[in-house]
Amino acid sequence: MSHVVEIQTEVRDIVAVRAACERLKWPSPVIGSHRLYQGTLVGLGVELPKWRYAVVCDIASGQLRYDNFGGRWGDQARLDEFLQSYAVEKAKIEARRKGHTCTEQPLADGSIKLTVNVGGAA
Q: For the chain, which end, N or C, has fewer CB atoms within 10 Å of the first or last residue's CB respectively?
């Protein structure tokens, strides 16, 4: 039986963040202090292509903090790519942790269909 799930993403898993960056061929995220326009934040910094400032993941709260000045300092599409990749990688990690296998299918609209095979059956 198939189920459609809608997810509001909270970024809480460092391993999944690293996997998302690797998937996108972006630099590895860095734990530490990161400068934004109005100050410095501590967290897991992700460098998005052509963004002036890093996106800082607060792993404890799951929230992202960033300053892209309404798109002038960074294209929202890059952040959307990151969140999509994070969600896919996190789902795969959790499915594998429970002994399931996953298959991915990129769709024409840019979304990704992730199928989790319960029990590892293909």
A: N
Closest CA to 51 of 79, 27, 31: 79
Bridge partners for 92 per DSSP: none
**Where do the structural domains in the chain lie, given as residue ranges?**
14-120
Q: What is the pLDDT of residues 65-107, one digit of tens each?
A: 999 998 999 999 999 999 999 999 999 999 999 999 999 999 9
Average pLDDT over all residues of the chain: 92
How far is the C-alpha of 61 from the C-alpha of 42, rounded, in Å?
13
Q: Buried (b) or exposed (e) across 18-42, using 16+ Cβ within 10 A?
A: bbbbeebebeebeeeebebeeeebe
